[in-house]
Amino acid sequence: MNKLDILILAILLISTTIGLCKGFIKEAMSLLFFILSCYVSILYSPLLYLFISKYINDGIVCNIFSYLIIFFLVIILLGLINKNLLIFIKYSGFSSIDHTLGGIFGAIRGILILSMIIFIINMTPIIYELWWSNSLFIKLINQLNQFLKSYYQIYFLI
Question: Is the pTM of this model over 0.70?
Fold first, then answer.
């Protein structure tokens, strides 16, 4: 285990802790919105790439920017919807199980965030660095990314 693995564990721990504090309902909506944002970004980033590539000559930078711009725009839009929905849910009186289930969703969110970050970093030369290739968690997350990629290709015809 190297320093990168410790950083990955810290990100997972922080995400899980946030989930425990927020609770299930808020985390479930956040996770759903995150997945939806990833899906929309995958679908529509090639369209934005065509526009951005007129102004930026580097293909890798265009890929990253087009994906991230769409991702964050969708996250912001869904976040506004989420905020309004939580006003109604706030007064429902859920117990501690709400927060426990929120921790599980927080852990899943952390894994997906790391998956997205590593997916983007895999488009750069950093992957050839020794500290990157020696990371245990990078290998595991790359396996998850391969599974997700095959899932999207099979079920969503991407």
Answer: no
